[in-house]
Amino acid sequence: MLRKTYFVNSCYKLMFLVGLNDVLTIVASCLITGYLMIKGTVFCTHPTLQYVTGSIGISLWAGQCVSCVALALNRCLDFWSPRLSEFLFDGRRTYIHYALIGAVITYIIVFTKPATLSSEIYMWLYDPYILLPQELVDHSVYTNLAHDLMTYICIPSLFVLYTFLIISIRVKSKGLSSQNTAQLKVAEATFDQLTNNSHVSDSLASGPYLFLKFLRRNAVPC
Question: Where do the TM regions start and end (predicted)?
Fold first, then answer.
């Protein structure tokens, strides 16, 4: 996986970053979250652990969104504008995108509010008092504008880019020989897996946050 011959391909470099981000996210979203859920915690019971985990988890989510958009853009440009793709991603230029993604992650950690976990609703949210009625708590102060913008921009971008890529594959596949068609089927299978890992997973993960953001809160006792 770490062979130098693999890293010649800019697409592989970006896929490696996406995979690394996934592995790191598992620590926060699965291992630590599982421990906190077993303990039945809210923010007040483990404030430091939740603050650190929430900051890291959200920053990795933002980094993952930007990484997937960069990967999708790279694939589209390889199909229709190889020169532009080479200009943006060829060789060491791919690591410029690494730096930009790292800057996004750093910004989210340092300058934005972390998510907090409530074992009562089994989710990481910015509002630790989400179950309290509006009359008792001003919920409008518990928000993360950077995360909202990341969701609003990246998810539609992924949908557009991957839809365009699907159409591109279909267009390019017309008139190919049987041998090339067989190779194309392998490429399509790889692409389907990449789509499921990138666009579908990100959309399913972000959907509940968008839903809860606009859901009218009922007066449920904590």
Answer: 12-38, 50-74, 95-115, 149-169
Structure tokens at 16: 């490696």
Domain parsing of the chain, residue ranges: 4-190
Q: Which residue has the tokens 């880019």?
A: 161
Which range (29-43, 75-89, 105-119, 128-142) has the least confidence? 128-142
pTM, full prediction: 0.79
Q: Give CA–CA dist 67/64, Å, rounded.
A: 5
Q: Which amino acid is at 123?
A: M
DSSP state letter for 217: P
* Percentage above 70 pLDDT, the chain: 77
Please give the radius of gyration of the chain, using alpha carbons only, rounded to the nearest integer: 20
Q: How far is CA 140 from CA 127, 184, 212, in A?
A: 9, 50, 13
Nearest to 203 by CA among 166, 157, 171, 172: 157
pLDDT, residue 221, reads 42
Q: How far is CA 55 from the centre of its chain?
A: 15
Identify the weakest region by mean pLDDT among 57-71, 147-161, 200-214: 200-214
